[in-house]
């Protein structure tokens, strides 16, 4: 099989949907390969995330590289260039929007990556040799470009069949009437947002349930529902009907454009809160508990749980701000304030931990343990069922 091929004269050219499916199948296969590799690499690490079996880790990555090359040969190599050609044709016909320049850049990189993969595969090394292993390792970064970004080419190919425009738009009078109804419902808390996406023109579309006289109907909003000026552009009996009429969604953006899902850095060693809590319970001296607290607030490469929590909250604030909506900016402000509070709390815990360690105290001997034989839990004992998560919106059908 050649790395990339064109249809032979007289053969049927694949449809846009088939080209899109080839990229989607490859992406799915790469996700499976990634999960399998993560499981294999987890077996090479200790409970704190440190690699203790480097040879096994190297073998797991070599299997990953080989499986990825085979997936590309099977699913994407025969169709990659044709898919990119179709994607460019569709992209050139889209209405002007802010995201199109970025999509052009992605297609350019995919085209260059495809050419580089073809050049490497056209000079295959001897099967099972070290040269083949090195060749597969060299291909991995190029294959992950397709795995990370091929969805843009795939989505553009899907749009060749249409779906960029609303099929049954409302009249100006209907739009105004339904918008007034929806605004009134929003004021009294009877407009429940359920789903949102961006259309090809870069405009946000949101589905919502409008409750009127104890009855619920699906309405589609164009614009930011948290800011003045949004409009109702459609009303439907159910979400399926809305999906058939409204402009198709385009892929959402990313928070960090330079990160790769398939090339994440190795996880830093860390101690869990449960381990630190056990250290406190098992501790006999103030120094034992002081070390556990200092582990929770440790900074740097092997950061402690409280520092990681601050990073989580601050990164979530960046995400909320990147939504570029009124409510997103408001929530970003709240999360940023929480991040500052966690920073203050982290410093307080660090100072308290140092003060506790400086006491050099130990627990008094009258706190004697209770000596008894404790039965082991049954092998098939199930953990307790967690309570339901409160505060999630309830979707009405």
Automatic annotation (TrEMBL):
Organism of derivation: Streptomyces parvus
Name of this chain's protein: Uncharacterized protein
Disordered: annotated span: 1-21, 373-397
Residue ranges with Low complexity bias: 1-14, 373-382
Top-level division of the source organism's lineage: Bacteria
């Amino acid at each position: 099989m050649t790395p990339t091929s064109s249809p032979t004269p007289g053969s049927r050219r694949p449809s846009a949907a088939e080209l899109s499916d080839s990229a989607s199948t490859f992406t799915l296969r790469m996700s499976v390969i990634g999960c399998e590799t993560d499981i294999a690499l987890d077996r090479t690490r200790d409970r704190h995330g440190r690699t203790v079996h480097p040879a096994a880790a190297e073998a797991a990555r070599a299997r990953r590289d080989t499986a990825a090359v085979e997936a590309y040969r099977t699913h994407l190599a025969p169709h990659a260039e044709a898919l990119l050609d179709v994607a460019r044709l569709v992209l050139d016909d889209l209405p002007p929007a802010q995201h199109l320049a970025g999509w052009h850049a992605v297609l350019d990189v995919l085209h260059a990556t495809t050419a580089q993969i073809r050049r490497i595969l056209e000079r295959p090394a001897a099967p099972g040799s070290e040269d083949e292993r090195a060749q597969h390792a060299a291909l991995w970064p190029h294959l992950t470009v397709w795995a990370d970004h091929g969805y843009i080419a795939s989505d553009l190919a899907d749009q060749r069949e249409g779906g960029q425009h609303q099929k049954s738009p409302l009249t100006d009078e209907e739009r105004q009437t339904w918008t007034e109804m929806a605004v009134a419902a929003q004021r009294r808390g009877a407009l429940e947002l359920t789903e949102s996406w961006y259309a090809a023109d870069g405009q946000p579309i949101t589905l919502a349930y409008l409750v009127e006289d104890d009855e619920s109907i699906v309405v589609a909003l164009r614009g930011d529902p948290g800011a003045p000026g949004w409009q109702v552009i459609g009303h439907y009996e159910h979400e399926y009907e809305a999906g058939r009429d409204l402009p198709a969604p385009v892929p959402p953006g990313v928070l960090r454009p330079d990160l790769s899902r398939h090339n994440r850095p190795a996880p830093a060693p860390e101690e869990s809160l449960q381990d630190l809590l056990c250290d406190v319970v098992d501790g006999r001296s103030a120094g034992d508990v002081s070390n556990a607290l200092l582990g929770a607030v440790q900074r740097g490469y092997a950061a402690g749980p409280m520092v990681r929590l601050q990073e989580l909250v601050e990164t979530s604030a960046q995400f909320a701000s990147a939504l570029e909506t009124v409510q997103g900016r408001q929530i970003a402000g709240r999360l940023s304030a929480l991040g500052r509070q966690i920073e203050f709390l982290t410093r307080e815990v660090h100072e308290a931990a140092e003060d506790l360690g400086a006491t050099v105290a130990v627990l008094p001997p009258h706190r004697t343990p209770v000596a008894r034989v404790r039965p082991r839990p049954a092998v098939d004992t199930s953990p307790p069922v967690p309570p339901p998560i409160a505060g999630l919106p309830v979707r009405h059908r």
